[in-house]
Amino acid sequence: MEPKKKMDIVVIGGGAAGYFGAIRAAAMHPDARVTLLEATRKPLTKVRVSGGGRCNVTHHCFDPAILVQRYPRGGKELRGAFARFQPKDTVAWFESKGVQLKIEGDGRMFPVTDDSKTIIDCLEREVETRGVIIKLGNMVRSIVRGPNGFEINVKIAGDESIVTADAVLLTTGGMPGGFQLAGSLGHTIMAPVPSLFTFVVKDSRIDGLSGISFPEVKGELICGGVTLKQTGPLLITHWGLSGPVILKLSAFGARLLHECDYQAKLHLDFVPHLTALDLEVGLRAEKESRPKQCPANHSLFKVTRRFWSQILPSVGIGPDLPWSDVTRVQMMQLIDTLKHATFQISGKGEFKEEFVTAGGVSLKEIDFRTMQSKICAGLYFAGEILDVDGITGGYNFQNAWTTSWIAGSNILE
Ligand SMILES: Cc1cc2nc3c(=O)[nH]c(=O)nc-3n(C[C@H](O)[C@H](O)[C@H](O)COP(=O)(O)OP(=O)(O)OC[C@H]3O[C@@H](n4cnc5c(N)ncnc54)[C@H](O)[C@@H]3O)c2cc1C
Q1: Residue 37 in contact with ligand 1 by CB distance below 6 A
Q2: Which domains, and CATH codes, for the chain?
Q3: Pairing assessment for the beta strands 264-269 and 341-345 based on DSSP bridges
Q4: CB-side exposure of 124: number of CA atoms within 13 Å?
Q5: What CA–CA distance (Å, rounded) separates 115 from 120?
Q6: How far is the CA of 382 from the centre of ligand 1 (A)?
Q7: 16 by DSSP, 3-state: which?
Q8: Which atom of ligand 1 is nearest to the CA of 397?
Q9: Residue 9's closest CA among 38, 37, 34, 31?
Q10: For each successive 10 residues of the chain (413 residues), what is the average pLDDT?
Q11: How many whole angstroms separate alpha carbon 151 and alpha carbon 246?
């Protein structure tokens, strides 16, 4: 009797999703040959630089119903996927490999070593233990689906060769070449646009205030007739506005903002915990109890002093104007500035800590129970190549872990 042919699983792309998927596939199919093809000589590059070199592995949010709300694209599809593999499973998986994760105050989870190398070493150790063949400097140029499997054209240092596979897991991230591969096999690619960025705002009310932060601000982004709302900390930067509230608005508004060429309006409520009436009562009390004092001398409503002194002139309250001379109109304008300040966004700024692309392989063409393509049997997808992206905080890696785990669990089934 002829010996049974060894099945070939080929993973394309050596990022978080590729490594995790290859490890899972090899664990599920110890008799198969699992080969990972990575174009560059340095795999796991994004893991290395992620989270400022500390790697924000996941988020301490173990309720799939809440978790999915952190994904501007893909939340609906990930609902069932998180029932199979969610942040709790990520934590348990790394722990089972000797890597402890810790939770920061805002819910982000990092290795206790505060070093992304810990995650890289763990993934490298696991591929070795599972016998995954890692081929670096192997750039996949084309994939053809034949009656007996896949033929993969690979460029290695100027030479071309063909690799065959019974099943393929495509994890090429947000790279255009990967989108072309998926497209050539019949998939629709949702146009890639940047997500997670800061807003360029030139406005005298924030000029020179770089570094000032607000613990909680309510933001309303108005773009192309649509209004998006988010709440969170705000940071004033050299070029405009940043911080979690802005990053969330940029992620949920990624497509809209791209269509509007990053020209939009932003309303900010700097004191969302207080109503306009609370502010009016507070200002009146101040005017009555300290008529000779100048408003510029001390800030109210826990607004930072520098910001307070900067907004007063914008409503005509100079540094030497006493409370007794502050008019009702000026008080109303001050309330409006604090509760409903309008800023003009004039461009897209950088967010160096995390860079993510919205867009990728259309989710309608993927069976999220297995991560197999509905168009090309035997082809699986995971990670950022999909039209899935999360807000900042470990959600993008969680998408990579979850989808690649499911793909690796179901490949060859
Ligand atoms: C600076 C930065 C910091 C980040 N920090 C965080 C963070 O702290 N937390 C978080 O959740 N997310 C973070 N992200 C996002 C996160 O890194 C990505 O969502 C995640 O790495 C996506 O993993 P992936 O495996 O799908 O794709 P990638 O990591 O992009 O890997 C794709 C791999 O495929 C290879 N490849 C591409 N085309 C081919 C081809 N034709 N043939 C062979 N190989 C190919 C590429 O070389 C690459 O190695 C960060 C991103 C950046 C850029």
Answers
A1: yes
A2: 8-193+354-410 (3.50.50.60), 197-350 (no CATH)
A3: antiparallel
A4: 12
A5: 9
A6: 11
A7: helix
A8: 11
A9: 34
A10: 82 98 97 97 97 96 97 97 98 98 96 98 98 97 94 94 97 96 98 95 94 96 95 96 96 96 97 97 96 94 94 94 96 96 95 88 98 98 98 97 98 91
A11: 45
